[in-house]
Write a structure and sequence with these properties.
single chain; alpha+beta; Uridine Diphospho-n-acetylenolpyruvylglucosamine Reductase, domain 2; Enolase-like, domain 1; 11 helices
Length: 335
């Protein structure tokens, strides 16, 4: 049951920052916050509404290059359907269109989507079950329980959950920066480093690197990457979270890879970059057996839980297929 709370509407970003205090939550699209409150994951005493702040909206070019700045309050559908995003950053457009339902995408903000928490059923249970992220020290029921959709990379005995955001995976592969504001000023965090792993010093209750008095103001994509794609494997094509996903961004010289960026989704508590494959793919023909081996070798480090070994095969195939789709875009093919 929800506890009573106060409500205030921020006049601007600085006003929102001034209103931060103990047990304060920001309201943007609200699609996650309301779930957290309903489940008892969060019980804020104060809610600050930032949904109408115009300086957090909009999508615009970054002067002096091919980069793009996306306001944190831009909705997923606004991002997905924006001509610059669709043409220059198709992996992000793909990811936004595959996130949630059409109705939710009209409301959910891209900044809020990055802040969503794990879909682990033990974390989101109506009753408090053993979950170190929900009740520190209580254990991880998923470690030897229901874990068929859980992590194959970066997990520890304390937590085997995964991060569910689709846009986060694309933003990692596109080497985006998350712009964060606080009373101390502005800082930028790479999308690849924004979410935390269970072994990180931030602690298992942290889902990302943000402090309690910070908010996301925008996402910056440094340069166009039209040869990119996002592939999501899920149990049904309609509204469903990924079993595994992959985002790929390529720079090509003909059919040869000059630079590759590959991120996997729903396999760890943050988008999982295949950094070894990225290095080894340089100079290889995109459809060559050597390129496929470079991708597949990364999965030797995957660690299956008791019920999710199948995810290793799905994630490996998704990475390879997304690489081929990204290359097809260079040839003018449809992904």
């Amino acid at each position: 049951m929800m506890e009573p709370f106060t409500y205030a509407r921020a006049a601007d970003v600085q006003d929102a920052l001034k209103r931060f205090g103990e047990r304060t939550a920001l309201l943007a699209g609200g699609t996650e916050l309301l779930n957290w409150m309903r489940l008892g994951i969060e019980q804020p005493a104060h809610i600050v509404d930032i949904s109408r702040l115009q300086d957090l909206k909009g999508i615009e070019s970054i002067p002096g290059g091919s980069g793009l700045r996306i306001g944190a309050l831009a909705t997923l559908n606004e991002v997905a359907l924006h001509p610059r995003v669709a043409n220059d950053f198709p992996a992000l457009s793909d990811a936004c269109l595959k996130a949630a339902s059409a109705q939710l995408r009209n409301l959910a903000s891209i900044g809020g989507n990055l802040l969503q928490r794990t879909r682990c059923p033990y974390f989101r249970s109506d009753e408090v079950l053993p979950c170190n992220r929900r009740a520190p020290g209580s254990g991880c029921a998923a470690r030897h329980g229901i874990n068929e959709k859980h992590a194959i990379f970066g997990w520890t005995d304390d937590c085997v959950a995964v991060q569910p955001s689709d846009p986060a995976v694309a933003l990692s592969a596109l080497e985006a920066d998350i712009v964060i504001e606080s009373p101390r000023g502005t800082r930028r965090v790479s999308a690849a480093d924004f979410h935390t792993l269970p072994a990180d010093d931030h602690g298992i209750r942290k889902h990302n690197v943000m402090d309690d008095d910070e908010l996301i103001t925008s996402i910056e994509l440094p340069c166009a990457m039209p040869n990119s794609a996002y592939l999501k494997v899920r149990e049904r094509e309609s509204y469903e979270f990924a079993i595994a996903s992959a985002a790929v961004g390529l720079e090509l010289d003909g059919g040869v890879i000059r630079k590759a960026r590959i991120a996997l989704g729903s396999v760890a508590m943050r988008p999982w970059r295949l950094s070894g494959a990225e290095r080894n793919l340089q100079g290889l023909a995109v459809a060559s057996p050597e390129a496929r081996r470079a991708v597949e070798q990364e999965f030797a480090a995957a660690r299956a839980l008791s019920h999710n070994a199948y995810k290793i095969v799905i994630a490996r195939n998704a990475a390879w297929r997304a690489l081929q789709w990204a290359a097809q875009r260079a040839e003018g093919g449809a992904a």
